[in-house]
């Protein structure tokens, strides 16, 4: 006898399967290089707990990458990257704000306004670059019919 699965469960299973496939496209070395590129100057200036900060940045990179991959289907159907990015503006903004809060919390930066602003822009660049990478790789998988 067959088990009855709701449509919501089926969609969730399909989404998890797609995310697992997309995560195979991601490299930890690549993420660590991007962390050093974006946040290296802040990490070296302050005595930040490197492992906890790096772990958080890895998590946010994965989330932004998967968000871009999720919206890559719109690019496959002819929508521009900017237009697809506007669709997920709220989720992307939430990721940027959460990464900023996480980074400032572990960084002990005080209230140096210029430094905090620089950190926010670095977080914004970091999340947007991973979103873009996920979008491009996801779009490529759709074009190759590997989704």
TrEMBL record:
A Pfam family hit: DUF2521
Listed name of the protein: DUF2521 family protein
Lineage: Bacteria, Bacillati, Bacillota, Bacilli, Bacillales
């Amino acid at each position: 006898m067959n088990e009855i699965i709701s449509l919501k469960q089926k969609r969730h299973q399909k989404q998890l399967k797609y995310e697992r496939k997309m995560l195979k496209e991601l490299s930890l070395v690549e993420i660590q290089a991007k962390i050093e590129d974006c946040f290296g100057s802040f990490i070296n200036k302050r005595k930040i707990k490197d492992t906890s900060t790096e772990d958080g940045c890895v998590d946010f990179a994965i989330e932004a990458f998967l968000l871009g991959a999720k919206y890559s289907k719109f690019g496959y159907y002819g929508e521009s990257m900017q237009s697809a990015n506007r669709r997920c503006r709220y989720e992307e903004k939430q990721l940027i704000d959460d990464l900023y809060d996480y980074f400032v919390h572990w960084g002990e930066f005080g209230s140096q306004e210029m430094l905090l602003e620089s950190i926010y822009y670095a977080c914004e660049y970091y999340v947007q670059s991973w979103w873009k990478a996920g979008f491009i790789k996801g779009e490529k998988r759709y074009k190759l019919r590997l989704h």
